[in-house]
Amino acid sequence: MLIQNCWQVKKCGREPGGIKSAELGVCPAATESRTNGINDGKNGGRSCWALAGTMCGGKIQGSFASKLSNCLNCDFFKLVQVEQGKTLISTKEILKLV
Asked: Fewer CB atoms inside 10 A, N or C side of the chain?
């Protein structure tokens, strides 16, 4: 199984050097080193739902609290849950790191 980060799956272009990084900025998920390795991702690439300022639906999201309901319904979040199974690091544990 190939583990992918959110920017690879969602193709948002906000990773460093991505096609939309100059226009929209580099996404915090791609650079948040405190979450590196969480759920087998690079930086925040597999914990993006717990990070403020990520992109969903073509627009930059705000705080964790304001975006959580969107994230819980996100196909990528659901994919990570399935792929990680019992090894999934909880949102609560991720928030302790950031």
From this structure: N
